[in-house]
Write a structure and sequence with these properties.
The chain contains 14 helices and 21 strands. It is of the alpha+beta class.
Length: 574
């Protein structure tokens, strides 16, 4: 639930972020995932990504898919970062703000102040010094309504950023914000600095369309991360070199090449040939990972990592102008669709025993999960229950076994997914289950070229499939993509529930863990009752690692960081 990093918040409240809430090894002091062996020549690291990112910025001015955006992790750094176990660490900052101290004050009227001090001698990739003004400038950019980012956390909660000295600044908050000490908890919408020396003049002179299309966001990107951009051949590859002045120390591997490949079979052949050393999320399915395991067991070519942390959701279109069939406006019809989705078959077919059916957005690995699980209405595959629900809204089964209304029109529903072997297979499983239950379901595959087209992916008329973490913030009303915000936002179904919005706002202002869990249970209940969003399964994310490449840990929880954020510790060992 990236809207609330409970672990980081509670540790901050107790002043224990570096005692009981983080591993013993701090950033820059030895590697996570270290393995025995001797140092080897640090050859170019070749990575395969499922497609081309629309930008290299962490917080983009365009919406991007979670898998396509993985390369951004190599080029960026924030005030803080998460590890694969969801522990928070300072990255650009010397330390994280501590609640109840001078570094994190909460005032009686709900406003807050947090103090942030940068590590000494930090620079951008082009050598210009990183200054507090870069953070203040970034806030001005992200607050500009015409750029479509002003409503996405944490920006609405932030008031201003004021320089205190050459390395220190204060963030003044309009309201309580529980992730103020761990803004990496906002994931792909995390707050990042922007290079004022490169962008300020253009920000003043360009309109929104021109500034969003500025070459800085792509081919001319200048960041703060472990690697800096050297070359980008659109649709083919991205090349990068180690950044000598990276905040946590120069990466051990000098050069990186990111190959942009959508076809898993092509990627598989290159992995087996030893031409690709690491494959990012959502390229391989579990069964493809198992094929690689069997091959590598014989020749020692590498190993496969499985991380059961990717939530798979079904989204029902809620915008009346796009909704098809119109019966989906009734929650009983949406419930019927949920009971026609064979989640267990999806787990069996796609996850090979390494996933599980899900009924909550929260991970079963959370210590307070049982309380959330008790709050929700569940939706096991049950064609009879689907038929009962649809009969209440005027649908009966016709001679061919499909539901029809009083005029004889079938309950025809689109099941949309992104292109890619796994995604297409998932959609096929759900279409089959829905048709067996009596729905006239058909499959639509969004081409890779349109995956990051903001408008295209939110106007599908029926059921859309997507992956996501525990991100309640995705489904507040202000996150609905519209033409006015240039279709930016993660509330793709266009679901609006005032009670959900109120509960979420209260969650964002609540610090005690017990109270937060109660609010989370309310959010889960509201989602399950309205059924515009259906949590279907937890699938295993598959990464493959070539033999000799060390320092890569498996992500342990949905809201933890992927291993890519710690690329500066990766190395070749023999």
């Amino acid at each position: 639930m990236r809207s609330t990093n409970l672990k980081a918040t509670m540790c901050a409240a107790l002043g224990l972020l570096f005692i009981g809430c983080a591993p013993g090894t701090a950033p820059g002091q030895g590697g996570t995932g270290a393995a025995p062996g001797t140092a080897a020549a640090q050859k170019t690291l070749v990575i395969a990504n499922r497609g081309e990112p629309p930008t290299l910025a962490t917080r983009a001015l365009v919406t991007q898919g979670s898998s396509l955006g993985i390369p951004t992790r190599f080029f960026n750094a924030g005030l803080d970062m998460l590890d694969v176990r969801e522990n928070s660490y300072p990255q650009l900052a010397e330390a994280l703000p501590q609640l109840g101290t001078d570094t994190w004050k909460v005032f009686p009227d709900g406003r807050m102040e947090t103090i942030h001090r940068l590590r000494p001698n930090l620079t951008w990739h082009d050598g210009a010094p990183l200054e507090p003004e870069d953070f203040a400038f970034a806030l001005r950019v992200y607050k500009a309504p015409e750029l479509g980012s002003s409503s996405i956390r944490p920006i609405p909660s932030m008031d201003e950023i004021v320089r205190l000295d050459e390395r220190t600044f204060v963030i003044r908050w309009r309201e309580p914000f529980v992730d103020a000490a761990a803004m990496a908890a906002s994931g792909s919408s995390a707050f990042q600095a922007l290079p004022r020396h490169l962008l300020e003049d253009d920000f003043k002179s360009m309109d929104a369309v021109a500034f969003t299309g500025h070459p800085f966001w792509t081919m001319q990107y200048v960041g703060l991360g472990a690697y800096k951009l050297e070359r980008w051949e659109p649709g083919t590859f991205i090349e990068a070199s180690a950044f000598d002045n990276y905040a946590l120390g120069r990466p051990k591997i000098d050069r990186m090449r990111i190959i942009l490949i959508n076809d898993p079979q092509t990627t598989m052949a290159s992995v087996l040939a030893g031409e690709i050393h690491f494959v990012t999320n959502f390229t391989f399915s579990v069964d493809q990972g198992q094929i690689l395991e069997q091959t590598w067991a014989a020749n020692g070519g590498g190993y496969v990592q499985y991380s059961p942390t990717q939530g798979r959701l079904g989204l029902i279109q809620m915008r009346p102008e796009y909704q098809q069939p119109k019966a989906l406006a009734d929650p009983r019809a949406r419930y019927a669709v949920a009971h026609g989705m064979d989640d267990q078959a999806r787990v069996d077919v796609l996850d090979g025993g390494k996933g599980q059916v899900a009924y909550t957005m929260a991970s079963p690995g959370l210590p307070y999960y049982p309380e959330l699980d008790r709050a929700v209405l569940k939706h096991p595959y049950d064609p009879l229950r689907a038929q009962q629900l649809l009969s209440e809204v005027g649908w009966t089964k016709g001679p061919d076994g499909f539901f029809v209304d009083s005029s004889g029109n079938k309950f025809t529903i689109e099941v949309a997914s992104s292109a890619g072997g796994k995604n297409e297979q998932e959609a096929s499983v759900y279409v089959d289950g829905l048709r067996r239950a009596g729905f006239d379901a058909f499959q639509y595959i969004t081409p890779v070229a349109l995956i990051d087209d903001n408008e295209t992916r939110v106007i599908h008329g029926g059921l859309s499939l997507r992956g996501a973490g525990q991100e309640y913030r995705n489904y507040i009303t202000s996150a609905i993509p519209t033409a006015e915000n240039r279709w930016r936002g993660n509330n793709r179904p266009g679901w609006s529930n005032p009670e959900f919005d109120r509960t979420y706002r209260q969650l964002e202002r609540t610090f005690p863990l017990e109270e937060r869990v109660q609010l989370l249970a309310q959010l889960e209940r509201l989602i399950s009752v309205d059924r515009a969003v259906t949590m279907n399964s937890w699938e295993s994310v598959v990464n493959t690692v070539a033999a000799g490449l060390q320092g890569i840990d498996v992500r342990m929880t949905p809201d933890a960081s992927g291993p890519e954020h710690w690329v500066h510790k990766w190395e070749w060992r023999s």
